[in-house]
Amino acid sequence: MSARERLYLFDTTLRDGAQTAGVDFTLQDKIMVARLLDRLGVDYVEGGFPGANPVDTEFFSASRTERAVFTAFGMTKRTGRSAENDPGLQGVLQARAAACCFVAKTSDFHVVHALGVTLDQNLEQIRDTVRAAVAAGKEAMIDCEHFFDGFKANPAYALACVHTAREAGARWVVLCDTNGGTLPDEVAAIVREAIHAAPGDHLGIHAHDDMGLAVANSLAAVSAGVRQIQGTLNGLGERCGNANLVTLIPTLKLKPDFAERFEIGVSDEGLASLSQLSRAFDELVNRPSNRYAPYVGANAFATKAGIHASAILKDPRTYEHVAPESVGNRRRLLVSDQGGKSNLLAELARVGVEVDKADPRLDLLLATVKEREALGYSYEGAEASFALLAKRALGRVPDFFSVESFRVMVERRHNAFGERVTVSEAVVKAMVDGDPLMTAAEGIGPVNALDVALRKDLGRYQPYISDLKLTDYKVRILNGGTEAVTRVLVESTDGDGEVWTTVGVSPNIIDASFQALVDSVTYKLLKAGAPAEGQPS
């Protein structure tokens, strides 16, 4: 096998990702993201525009990566100023970064109407900026903004911008599909033309996802000759986002068309951390993870149908295009009204419930699952409730406590400061070892009040649940009208760092919530090895 060519990965999450609506990186966020990317094995981490705001200025006061090339972003110098007298350019050159990436207009329309300069003046700006960066000892790059649209309108000028940047000493000249409107075959054809202006091992691709084609366009550009790919974690970016490096990396490493021709800086170990990294990044930016994301989504290797599950158990390649473990994900054979015994056995094994496949109680358990899902329960996202349901059917859940009754009151009133407030109060009556325990608590809402009241005093079980806390609460109305059914998912965690989800279903949202809360407490007691009711502690 001949030596593979090197592909370089350039991450722009801290610039392009920061343009996403609702995303605002703090300094510590930026430092953490840079470390995540450095450990993953990307080649370049672009940190933003030094001088644009106090956070970016502080971020560039030190180099933030050990392996990856830390990169500052900026604009080409302004017409009428020398490179030495352009404060924006000098701010980028003086940043603690080994490389600089400058955005340049390469569409004649944008040069004339956005910059307000002549075509020749724009070429001069590109040339002088690159030379200044090289003279400062930086690795210089030019992002050719609106390159593909510019090429379609005036190919000679767009290519002149590429040639000028490369001739001035740019290590990389990056072709940008800035509005995300170019098709893969167009990208490939235009890249092949661009190689006449600069060799492919000095060309990059920067694709936006406005048609959902950023990953496809990036791969088309690589096949046509570019050797640098720019993108972001989870495809974060303005409008519809940027090329998703989390999708591109496993494709480049695992698909023979690319893996046999190219190598990237991400190791097999880095690839196996990809699912965790993707979800950790979503947590950092406070966004729900996409369960359907390629490779790393929770449902990327999930199936319901029983016949599919049987085939997967015999040969996973029949329905899985790569091994889930290679990207740090896992196979999920969902227990549902469409699944059969193969799904059930696989899911029982996954949640740690050992059972003989000939056990007659399995048929009853499967029927119970299907009956409850017909009522609105869903165990695909509530594995703790499924584990309890299964263990109860198999006689493996002891009696810890029982709830005799609960009551919730919501009152709007004026507090001592004369402010109008809404207060929720809950009362829960439980039985532990035959003794009644009644607790009351206030909360910021009825569910919070119930949660606090339920866990306030469970007698001798209190030490087992002292580190239990509710971390998320989701509600879905399953059917509208006056007979609406509500499904509630409650996510909980404890001091061990384990996270689990429980489900409740009822026409009454409070009742559904309380079911899920009781399951969460019961799961914690079972997990902690608490003794059954009547047994010594």
Automatic annotation (TrEMBL):
Pyruvate carboxyltransferase domain boundaries: 7-272
Gene: cimA
One Pfam family it belongs to: HCS_D2
Organism encoding this protein: Methylopila henanensis
Catalytically driven reaction(s): pyruvate + acetyl-CoA + H2O = (3R)-citramalate + CoA + H(+)
Class of enzymatic activity (EC top level): transferase
SUPFAM superfamilies per the UniProt record, alphabetical: 2-isopropylmalate synthase LeuA, allosteric (dimerisation) domain, Aldolase
Name this protein carries in UniProt: Citramalate synthase
EC number: 2.3.3.21
Pathway the protein contributes to: Amino-acid biosynthesis; L-isoleucine biosynthesis; 2-oxobutanoate from pyruvate: step 1/3
